[in-house]
Amino acid sequence: MKSILILISFLIIGHLYSTAQTFNNAYSFQQGTNYNAVEVFEVGNKYYIFGNQINEVSRPFCFVLNNLEEIVFYNSPIEISGRISNQSHSIVHQLSEFISVGSKYNSESGNNEGLITVWNYNAELTNTTSLQPHAPLNNLELESIFSIENEFIVVGFEYSIGINFPSKIVFFKLDNNLNEVSRTYATLSQNSVPYGAALNSDQQVVVAGRTYNDFMEPQLLQILFDSNNQEIQLTTIPFSENQIILGMLVKPDNNILLAGNEGINGQLNARIWEAESTSINDWFEQDEQPNEQSQFRGITQIDSSNLLAIGFADSVGVAFGYLAKTDFEANSIWSRKIRYSDFESSFLNSAKSTTDNGIIAVGITQEFSDYPNYSTLSIWVVKLNNQGELNPEGVTNVVNSKQYEPSFVRIYPNPGNVELKIAGLDNTASTFVEIYDITGRLISTHTFQQGDVQVTIPTAHYSKGSYIIKITNGHQISRHTWILGA
Residue 211 pLDDT > 80, yes or no? Predict the structure, then answer.
């Protein structure tokens, strides 16, 4: 099969291209898998990007950028086949850890079960927990996780075998060690489709979705749950079949904002609606352009008074990432279109405010190859100022001008015994490996000349236990935890 080209793009310098900002100077490399970004976080001067590798199986990943200059850590554990949910609130940052929720396939039962993964600041997977569906043959998809006082609330959807619509909303209450304390269920009517979950100002879980009345007319479904995850309120509001919801946010007044698109005369227009107790109203819409397709896929609060809607716009067959900043009164502050290059579609997946009053955004570029009906996904990361601009005149350090060659080095088997293999090396550079025990004592060093994409280190003479593997491959440094003889 033809090699798959994956571009992991670390923004260099942007310029205005028509009404969009285009950044197209990046390093590319060949890697036989796709990458789809889900979420981005800022901690210190580092940016943590989470998502899923997509090959024969899906695997979660985390990589860490040092101030947009270089990858300092990367991990996509080969022992985990599963995915992080692409719903909002699928990851929480707790103390020095990130906790993500999603699902994985159980080959023994033949169904999907809930998956919780815990990552430290070195992008290392430190813990995994599985949650089982209520019925043995059902499928469970975990969608959102919330930290409330000294416990976690995880919201999932359970699907009956052979049915494409979830039959139950499942609420798990977990302690600080991610042990299940309790679970409750809310049964959904046939053909109901939840959009997602969020917390309101009273720390109650709100789930919004679509359902149908007895006349098969679409209704907006809102379900409110108390602190014990018991259903306390269910409302339905007439809704248009042409209104598609992809994201949600609860305002401080507990009204729900719904982000998506509305189909009008064959054209998709990005919209945000506000759902009150008995009605749903237009709240914000993109400035429409002739023959332009647009969509909001999410909405997030970036400070005490402003929101950021993210999505895409497409007017010439090539999509742009789309950002719109508003206040809580739906007043437009600015909107921006950005993309990776003039010839490939770019989609925004996540954006957050940064400590220096800027915005960090992560998205994907979809590149269509000449292989029939095939396309690949690549990741790009961009830093904007508070006006949503790329490297504008008079603003410094908005993006870094250093070109960097990303590497996705991995170690295996892990746990291992007689040898340690290191793969994914840049064969144009030499490699230096340092092995430390768990106390930080240097055990051994190994040097390999350029030309190898994989190397092997004999380890049969090492004592059983945990080790830190530091790998310097050219300009790139990564650290990995490795267990011997487990």
Answer: yes
Amino acid in position 340: Y
pTM listed for this prediction: 0.74
Task: Determine the Cα–Cα distance for residues 66 and 477; give it in Å rounded to an integer.
Answer: 11
Pairing of strands 151-159, 139-148: antiparallel
What is the overall mean pLDDT for the chain?
A: 78
Instruction: Tell the residue number behind the tokens 């190859």, with chain if given.
Output: 369
Across 380-391, average pLDDT: 78
Q: Which amino acid is at 421?
A: K
Alpha-carbon dihedral angle through residues 262, 295, 258, 151, given to the nearest 10 degrees: 150
**Rounded distance, CA 97 to CA 50, Å?**
13
| pLDDT exceeds 60 at position 8 | no
pLDDT value for 437: 80
Q: What DSSP assignment string belongs to 250-310?
A: E-TTSPEEEEEEEEETTEEEEEEEEE-SS-EEEEEE----TT-EEEEEEEEE-SSSEEEEE
How far, in Å, CA of 156 to CA of 334, rounded? 35
Tell me the C-alpha distance between 379 and 348, whole Å: 10
For residue 363, the number of C-alpha atoms closer than 13 Å in the C-beta half-sphere is 29
Q: Give residues with Cβ within 8 angstroms of 327, minimum separation 6.
A: 305, 306, 307, 333
pLDDT digit string (tens) for 127-146? Answer: 999 999 888 778 999 999 99
Cα 327 from Cα 85, distance rounded (Å): 28
Helix, strand, or coil (residue 326): strand
Predicted confidence at residue 143, as pLDDT, reads 93
Tell me the C-alpha distance between 325 and 323, whole Å.
7
Judge whether 165 and 192 are in contact, CB under 8 Å: yes
